[in-house]
Amino acid sequence: MKDKRIELPTIKRSKKLPIVLSQEEMRRLLKAPKLLKHRVLIALLYGCGLRCFEVRNLKIADLDFDRKILHVKDGKGKKDRYVPLADILIRGIKTYLEAEQPLEWLFNSKGEQIIGRAGGDFDGRYSQRGVQWAVNEAKKKAGILKPMNVHTLRHTYATHLLEEGLDILTIKDLLGHECIDTTMIYLHVAQTEKSRAFSPLDRSYLSRK
């Protein structure tokens, strides 16, 4: 009721910033899984900034090795997008495809796996619980103490891209965000050369040694 200058108070949203892994933590995490399937899974989550349901929905036909891109179909809001595939990731996926020979889904069941076991599959696709289990096991083996989940890899992807100099609008498109405001949160997390904060200890006490 603006004519009477009566307005409801604004509901304050949480201002918590996302947890992000360092480059060194990501290297340890990627090396941690024993199974090639899980190494490729984690590499895709981080290397392409995928959501959990997006990596589960990947089909072999969505991979374009010639153009070095991945077609993410029916993302959040039923939006499609293309994301680049790194050469090292392409090599890993090709090795995985040759070894495991999945059928339709990139991460699927061959039929002999027991439904419901940790890391198992449902309806032909890798289950949400299976993805979460693989990431959590890798976290423990890598000795990462930060609280993290599957979505942490997507936050890390966006932050590392920003720190490497990619512009925020391109990152928005790669993440499939509807609104730029959602992407802007990474500006508060990334440590770019121009905005890198420092402690007064670095400039005062340590410089006098």
UniProtKB/TrEMBL annotation:
Stored Pfam families: Phage_integrase
Domain of life: Bacteria
Keywords in alphabetical order: DNA recombination
Higher taxonomy: Bacteria, Pseudomonadati, Bacteroidota, Cytophagia, Cytophagales
UniProt domain Tyr recombinase: residue ranges: 16-199
Name by which UniProt lists this protein: Phage integrase family protein
TM regions (residue ranges): none
Entry keyword Hydrolase: no
